[in-house]
Amino acid sequence: MSEIPAVSIVIPLYNKGPHIARALNSVLAQTIQDFEVIVVDGSTDDGAEVVRGFEDSRIQLIQEENQGVSAARNQGIAAARAELVAFLDADDEWMPRHLETLLRLRDNYPEAGAYGTARLTIMEDSTVRVSSYSDDIPPEPWEGLLSNYFRDAVLGTPPLLTSIVAVPRCILNEMGGFNIDAWYGEDADLWGRIALKYPIAFSWDGMGIYHEDALNRSSNEKKSIQEHVFVTSARNALQAGEVAPEMKKDLLEYVASRQIQIALRNLEAGRPDLVRDSLKGCKTRYQWKSKYWALFWAHAPSRIYLLLKPHKIIRVLTSCRSRIKGVSAGKQGFKTPD
């Protein structure tokens, strides 16, 4: 274990025993084999035993009391030996060229702060959904530096998600890793903080596979949230004068998307008061339908919302996305209020 691998792979593991073998097998099937795997486990199920069943010296298991996914990822980062750190959740998997693609992006675009690939999603009914990315991202087989990360994240599927990202270790150290005080949105917060300072590289090749059909997903928890952690990070950056003027309007539109996302989650958690609070400062030019739809339901009985929300959310957000994409196709810039 003395030689430094090309990439370190960090996998947080908490009660994902039924899925961790699939994740590890997808790593072992990569076209690039020069890696180490750091599994940080705080489980109460048999996940650790499954990991121990892989007789591969490149797989390291760290066991600790569960302190949340951010703490687990940060411990994995601290243990990483490679200069490039890739992330994979225990219930997701990679296509065979994923690491090859991430390393190629790193070599071709060393100025980037993070590297990501496209992804597929396995839905709860086992159907496969191809992610719909911003029209500003050139079609396959393009790869390169995104012209505007925050705009792309509003116009389509966010270009960076945890199981499809690699970040230089020096950038992770500069950013202080994942925010351990946030149980939701901690990944989007880190990618956003990186994108405020560095360009982001993206490739259609080497996709990741995101499993919404997995068990025990933390994103399914019905817990209230005071504010999306990146909304706080963006506010601090704006107040400190750390946001480039040409980035400000797109950043604010992205912030609005996070405020609306949290509002919808608070509706599910039965906290309409938090919905109204979080949307008071939400300024958006192109997501107003979603904003006012959430505000409408914040004044209605929660039981009615919970009964109707599944098909309503899809309808409203699809309408909103179509409006935004129409603006993009017309090559008009955002006009988000200051």
TrEMBL record:
<dbReference type="Pfam" id="PF00535">
    <property type="entry name" value="Glycos_transf_2"/>
</dbReference>
<protein>
    <submittedName>
        <fullName>Glycosyltransferase family 2 protein</fullName>
    </submittedName>
</protein>
<dbReference type="InterPro" id="IPR001173">
    <property type="entry name" value="Glyco_trans_2-like"/>
</dbReference>
<dbReference type="InterPro" id="IPR050834">
    <property type="entry name" value="Glycosyltransf_2"/>
</dbReference>
<feature type="domain" description="Glycosyltransferase 2-like">
    <location>
        <begin position="8"/>
        <end position="129"/>
    </location>
</feature>
<dbReference type="InterPro" id="IPR029044">
    <property type="entry name" value="Nucleotide-diphossugar_trans"/>
</dbReference>
